[in-house]
Amino acid sequence: MFHISTAPLNREQIQKWVEEYGYVPVEPPLGIDLFAEIERVKKEKNAILLAHYYQDADIQDIADFVGDSLELSQKAAQTQADIIVFAGVHFMAETAKILNPTKKVLIPDLNAGCSLSDSCPPERFAQFKAQYPEYKVVSYINTSAAVKAMSDIIVTSSNAAAIVQALPADWKLIFAPDKNLGAYVMHKSGREMVLWDGVCMVHTIFSYQKIRQLREKYPDALLIAHPECEPSVLEHADFIGSTSALLNYVVQSPAKQFIVATEPGILHQMRKRAPDKDLVAAPSEYSCSCNTCPHMKLNTLEKIYNALIYEAPEVTLDEQTIELARRPIERMLEMSRALGILKK
Ligand code: 13P
Ligand code: SF4
């Protein structure tokens, strides 16, 4: 992976490597303590490292803030840092850039995409939207900046149902791109919506058949699930919520055992904050580890170190997209504060 050992000489070379690999493929100096060095460079450059719960444990441990998509976007909006390093996936780093157009936003590996975001290409979404000229667009944050720019409001898994419920009753709604979250939001809010046909490659693979077998083995365990899971899983869940909501539920619930139907990266914080709880990762349909997000797992400490040292790869967006995409994200943050989902 890090096959180039000579230090890059100039920006042009770094840019060429980023274009070719999606990250800076330079071997960090042999024997350095990556944790200490990342800390040092962060301080030196006034940089902040934001990480999602699906990151590897060591990345979560070195991050300045770990959270779900909503908390991460609020943190990105409020930071005083000059550089934001986003250990998550591309749409998250883009959101940080949209909220901070004058700051440098770095992503350790540009290849860290998202199957949901990829399922909704802007050109196809524009055609879809054109079929419903009177409709307002509610987009999940797991979309590209270009789709956000075509949206009226952005939501995340932690605020989608409450926001949709609070939208003017006479608004007709399109929801994109996750049809599972969309169906869950319709059920919770009682609002009809036209759904885009997308799913998350990770959450769609959990199988209730396998979970049922686990429940027989652990009859006292509660099933907790992310709303991107299939309806067959959600129907049987004892609790449904965003990654942060699942974490808080495990910490606060008097129950001792949980089957967790989301990406297993979250188990790290659950174990840290609730060491006395017994956690079982929900199995996928097949005998594979496809319940881990391959995009999230592209980030490594080495790539984070390189991103800080070489200030690349950088997330860039044109001014018009930033302008158009910022409004629906800010609307989401405002509504989340007004609804008490986010602190002021
Ligand atoms: P959360 O906002 O719940 O952290 O979810 C992000 C995500 O990508 C889930 O797959
Ligand atoms: Fe996207 Fe699914 Fe990975 Fe979340 S888990 S980032 S929705 S592919």
Q: Secondary-structure blueprint of this entry?
A:
Blueprint: H1 11-21, H2 34-45, E1 47-52, H3 57-62, E2 65-67, H4 69-78, E3 83-87, H5 90-99, E4 104-106, H6 115-118, H7 122-130, E5 135-140, H8 145-148, E6 153-155, H9 160-166, E7 172-176, H10 179-189, E8 193-195, H11 208-217, E9 222-225, H12 231-234, E10 239-240, H13 243-252, E11 257-261, H14 266-273, E12 278-281, H15 301-310, H16 319-338
Parallel strand pairs: 1-2, 1-3, 3-4, 5-6, 5-7, 7-8, 9-10, 9-11, 11-12
Helix pairs in contact: 2-15, 4-5, 5-16, 9-10, 13-14
Bound molecules: 1,3-dihydroxyacetonephosphate (13P) and iron/sulfur cluster.
The site of 1,3-dihydroxyacetonephosphate (13P) has 10 residues, from loops.
